[in-house]
């Protein structure tokens, strides 16, 4: 097999142009080998390049928000989504946990499962793949699934492009992509992006980023290839606060959020990230070797609740040494995928500071000490703590895909990883959520903890007809706590997730759909509990059971008109869980998990005329969900939040108008309630628009 042309095949995506989510497509995520999604024994969705371009997708949340079983919401129009897959990720205080995010096979997720979405320039992304549930050989310390971003390879022929966009709320976007051949065997490409948004409808919500990527590739005489990527990101993101119930009612009547009573008015995340990765691919007989090495260095200034994080010496080193062995078994073609992984995340002299500028008010209760009522800036005050940490992960994986009969395909996989935390520091002062002020810290501390993580999957595909496959799978995986969770509760144990799934996949000429039924049982699930002051407390929940149904369908009436939709039913409950309330344990057995709507669906329609005119309309609905573990109150969710695209393409020119939330619905992207009855709301973005022009040359 010629490596040069196999790489091109790997990147090819065959899809119905009408699709919101590409179903008749090739995946590189589930098996590490290019495989049609119909032939994968679990739920997987692929968002294709046309959908990304038509929706003018500039952050990951917009790309995957309409996939059934995925809860993706953002209140900032920036790379800071609340991201949950089948309930996994629900515990995250901020960012994304329990979900593995990768770009071209390189993990963007740290060993302790935290992901920085600042890394991602969606304008360089060819497709997004979402694999749901535990058991993936890609997923290290992640029970929720895998999100893989596939960018355009330097070897793939493509026209150069300049793209400019302007919109309301100070939105500006410019992107330049160029590619060239240095010689017959040497290729280079570059991408530069600049984004800005003021988000003036709420306080402390500005965002800007500058990103640059250079790729270089070489084809050797034996058809082996090497490809390297160098990228730099500088991102400045303010993070707005939440609202009380009264302030949320005001937002619903005005569409703006100003002068809230939120204590931490100046949260932010300013990051600088440099990364490099190199992958090599060589075929020797029936074996294809795919070694990869990567490195990134990052720094951030991150004011959050009570503390200002300032860390400028963080480095991640990693390698993944993979091979694919093509052979025959039972008279049919089979593939063995095997590899080893090693990764280290090293942070030196990370500092935390008190806020320098804030207002204090006298307390009305004993001991009547002043409390911080509001910050005035995010200037650093006195040093609160210093910390060094090293998180290491090493492991091995193995997967065999074979066909014992012509109509049955089996895949059996497993991986074992060792995850170790070595954390030491000096906590001089700490913010007390009960006193609402700074108190003496614990002094010197050390956390030395290790976990052995196991994951495995057995799946079967049965070919009913040429267009219809049925599948069944059983998968399991472990999830370790994160460094921040261990800091709150050093006795946390790893959780164990077991997923049972059956499904049906149809890929006909004009219609395709996926149907999945699953039951996911999690023992010792790590759950976030909110106290009366918004403090996150983590505990092993005992056991949760998540049952669900997911359906996704696309129908192309002809080459010009198509429509489709998705639906997810989620029945997620605590089996055994005692929640701490005012020092006492209260049973939540049988209660529903908060935040997850029982019913969620989306609909879309597309029009692509031969004269160049195009249009796409998408609408989504979240049903009601409980705001707390006690199930005392529900948020009603939202209905028919609709996005519209109108565009025109002529030769090298493309102009389009994208309007998000066209009916200007005012709703909460998150509604929570703590154990003492205090409600908090985070507003979703009101109507916004961007006019974009691109030219290919």
Gross geometry: globular
Number of strands: 41
In what range is the share of β-strand residues?
A: over 45%
| Structural domain count | 1
- How many helical stretches? 5
Sheet with the most strands, sense and barrel status: 22 strands, antiparallel, barrel
Report how far apart the termini are: 33 Å
Given this structure, which CATH class is correct?
Answer: Mainly Beta
Q: Based on helices, strands and strand pairing, what is the structural class?
A: mainly beta
The CATH superfamily appears as TonB-dependent receptor, beta-barrel domain
What is the name of the CATH topology? Maltoporin, Chain A
Radius of gyration: 25 Å
- Going by CATH, the architecture would be Beta Barrel
Helix amount: under 10%
Q: Quick check: average pLDDT?
A: 90
Low-confidence stretches are 1-17
InterPro entries: Beta-barrel_TonB, Beta-barrel_TonB_sf, Plug_dom, Plug_dom_sf, TonB-dep_rcpt-like, TonB_box_CS, TonB_rcpt_CS
Membrane topology: Multi-pass membrane protein
Family: Belongs to the TonB-dependent receptor family.
Main location: membrane
Describe the structure.
This protein is mainly beta and 697 residues long. The chain has a single domain, classed as TonB-dependent receptor, beta-barrel domain (Maltoporin, Chain A, Beta Barrel). 5% of the residues lie in helices and 59% in strands. The protein has five helices and 41 strands. The strands form nine sheets. The chain has a 22-stranded antiparallel barrel. Strands 3-8-9-6-7 form a five-stranded mixed β-sheet. A hairpin with a 4-residue loop joins β29 and β30. The longest helix has 10 residues. The chain is globular. The N terminus is likely disordered.
């Amino acid at each position: 097999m010629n490596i040069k042309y196999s790489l091109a095949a790997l990147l090819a995506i065959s899809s119905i142009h009408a699709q919101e989510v590409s179903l008749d497509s090739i995946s590189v995520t589930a098996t590490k080998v290019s495989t049609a999604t119909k032939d994968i024994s679990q739920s997987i969705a692929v968002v294709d390049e046309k959908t990304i371009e038509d929706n003018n997708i500039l952050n990951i949340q917009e790309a995957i928000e309409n996939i059934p079983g995925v809860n993706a919401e953002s209140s900032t129009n920036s790379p800071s989504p609340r991201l949950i897959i089948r309930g996994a990720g629900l515990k995250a205080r901020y960012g994304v946990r329990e979900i593995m995010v990768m770009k071209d096979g390189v993990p963007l997720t740290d060993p302790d499962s935290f992901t920085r979405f600042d890394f991602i320039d969606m304008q360089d992304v060819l497709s997004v793949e979402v694999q749901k549930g535990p058991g993936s050989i890609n997923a290290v310390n992640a029970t929720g699934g895998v999100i893989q971003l596939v960018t355009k390879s330097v070897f793939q022929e493509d026209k150069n492009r300049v793209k400019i966009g302007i919109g309301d709320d100070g939105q500006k976007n410019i992107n330049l992509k160029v590619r060239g051949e240095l010689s017959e065997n040497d290729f280079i490409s570059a991408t530069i992006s600049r984004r800005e948004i003021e988000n003036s409808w709420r306080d402390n919500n500005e965002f800007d980023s500058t990103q640059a990527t250079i790729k270089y590739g070489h084809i050797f005489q034996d058809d082996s290839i090497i490809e390297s990527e160098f990228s730099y990101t500088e991102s400045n993101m303010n993070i707005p606060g939440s609202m009380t119930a009264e302030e949320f009612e005001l937002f619903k009547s005005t569409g703006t959020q100003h002068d809230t009573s939120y204590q931490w008015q100046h949260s932010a995340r300013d990051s600088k990230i440099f990364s490099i990765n190199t992958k090599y691919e060589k075929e020797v007989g029936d074996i294809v070797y795919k070694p990869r090495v990567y490195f990134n260095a990052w720094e951030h200034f991150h004011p959050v609740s009570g503390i200002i994080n300032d860390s400028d010496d963080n480095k991640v080193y990693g390698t993944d040494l993979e091979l694919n062995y093509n052979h025959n078994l039972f008279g049919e073609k089979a593939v063995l995928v095997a590899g080893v992984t090693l990764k280290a995340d090293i942070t030196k002299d990370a500092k935390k500071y008190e806020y320098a500028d804030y207002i204090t008010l006298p307390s009305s209760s004993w001991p009547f000490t002043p409390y911080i009522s509001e910050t005035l800036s995010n200037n650093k005050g006195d040093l609160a703590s210093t910390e060094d940490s090293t998180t290491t992960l090493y492991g091995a994986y193995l997967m065999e895909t074979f066909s014992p009969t012509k109509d049955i395909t089996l895949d059996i996989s497993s991986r074992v990883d060792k995850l170790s935390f070595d954390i030491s520091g000096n906590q001089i002062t700490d913010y007390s959520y009960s006193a609402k002020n700074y108190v003496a810290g614990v002094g010197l501390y050390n956390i030395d903890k290790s976990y052995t993580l196991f994951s495995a999957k057995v799946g079967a595909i049965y070919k009913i007809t040429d267009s219809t496959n049925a599948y069944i799978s059983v998968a399991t995986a472990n999830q370790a706590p994160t460094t921040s969770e261990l800091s709150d509760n050093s006795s946390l144990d790893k959780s164990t997730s077991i997923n049972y799934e059956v499904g049906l996949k149809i890929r006909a000429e004009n219609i395709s759909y996926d149907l999945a039924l699953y039951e996911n049982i999690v023992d010792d699930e790590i759950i976030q509990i909110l106290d009366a002051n918004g403090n996150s407390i983590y505990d092993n929940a005992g056991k949760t059971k998540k049952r669900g149904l997911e359906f996704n369908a696309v129908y192309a009436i002809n080459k010009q008109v198509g429509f489709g939709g998705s639906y997810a039913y989620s029945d997620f409950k605590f089996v055994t869980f005692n929640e701490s309330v005012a020092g006492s344990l209260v049973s939540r057995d049988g209660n529903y998990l908060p935040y997850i709507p029982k019913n969620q669906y989306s609909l879309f329609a597309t029009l692509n005329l031969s004269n160049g005119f195009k249009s796409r309309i998408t609408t989504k609905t979240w049903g009601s969900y409980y705001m707390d573990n006690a199930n005392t109150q529900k948020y009603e969710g939202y209905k028919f939040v609709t996005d519209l695209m109108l565009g025109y393409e002529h030769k090298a020119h493309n102009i389009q108008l994208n309007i998000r939330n066209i009916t200007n619905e005012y709703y909460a992207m998150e509604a929570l309630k703590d154990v003492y009855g205090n409600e908090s709301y985070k507003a979703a973005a009101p109507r916004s628009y961007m006019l974009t022009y691109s030219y290919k040359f």
